[in-house]
Write the structure tokens for this entry.
Amino acid sequence: MAKDFEARARDRLEPAVYDYYAGGADDQVSVNDNPRAWQRVRLRPRVLRDVTAVDTTVTMLGATAAAPIGIAPTAAHELAHPDAECATARGAAAAGVPYVVSTLSTRSMEAIAEAASDAARWFQLYVRGDLDRARALVQRAEACGHQALVVTVDVPTLGLRRHEAMALNDRVGLPHMARPDDTGGDTYARHVALTFDDLHEIISWTSLPVLAKGVLRADDAAACVRAGVAGIIVSNHGGRQLDTTIDPPTALEEVAAAVGDATEIYVDGGIRRGTDVVKALALGAVGVFVGRPVIWGLVVDGADGVCAVLDELRTELERAMRLCGAATVADVTHDLVVGP
Ligand SMILES: Cc1cc2nc3c(=O)[nH]c(=O)nc-3n(C[C@H](O)[C@H](O)[C@H](O)COP(=O)(O)O)c2cc1C
């Protein structure tokens, strides 16, 4: 069905918009390999366990979610659906999982909060222009009820996305990119190449738990922990930044082994099946995030489509856990997998 959503979304979108959402950087190696990397990890199922009742609920950053699944931050949902990020947030609320709102959203974080006050929202921060501008966004995010801040750390500059024929800010308004003295939505193109000191400073601005998104190595993960993060999202940005990186399950295993006891580890990139979620948990993740499949659901059926994609993944997870002999997420341990 996930494939079905993508095919239906592709039919509805103009090719440049489909390519914007679907594409990766350079030769598209990582974007294509991410789902395959999860397939390469193999399961070692247990049998003869009591799996009459399977419970997929989980605690992420102290809050309960219906499943160890969340919506990864992705830009410009207005290109997918007229209700844009407001619909995405309603879909997340209906599915009972957190939604990471992107700095590059096409609705303001306050409007999204109002549209779905019952959604668990985390705010993703891009630092563009300068740190002061970012600080103002963090204060707004805290004021309008976000439960966490996700600092994306893998964009010192944009990856080379040859397929991207489209300049986002020519097509849609990006309210968080507007100059404070200008309501016209001017975009600040210059990415700031953050350092660990900057990360430490950002953490000092807020009482929200802060996660670093885009980490692929144990030494970086350890330095993020020293800087004070509450969590790490292992990610190669869905293959849109540096192409030909190590794959998400390999990086996850390395990071979880190094700092899994010290902080909460999450992963994204190519998660498409319930079995992928089982593998991520077994390799040390507290939860996973999904990007593109949620966009396809949004294109096809707005908030209901978003909820349908998430529900399908949760249902697949439940089935996979039952077939693996795991009744709770705590039962999903490393011995269930071989590889990557
Ligand atoms: C269209 C698109 C836009 C994205 N925008 C952002 C963004 O604004 N901020 C961010 O941190 N990551 C962004 N990402 C990366 C996602 O958060 C996530 O790492 C990736 O999509 C996960 O891979 P998946 O799409 O295979 O699930 C974007 C990804 C896509 C596909």
Notes: The chain is about 40% helix and 15% strand. The first strand starts at residue 42 and ends at 43. Residues 2-338 form a domain with the TIM Barrel fold (CATH 3.20.20.70). The CA atoms of residues 216 and 251 lie 5 Å apart.
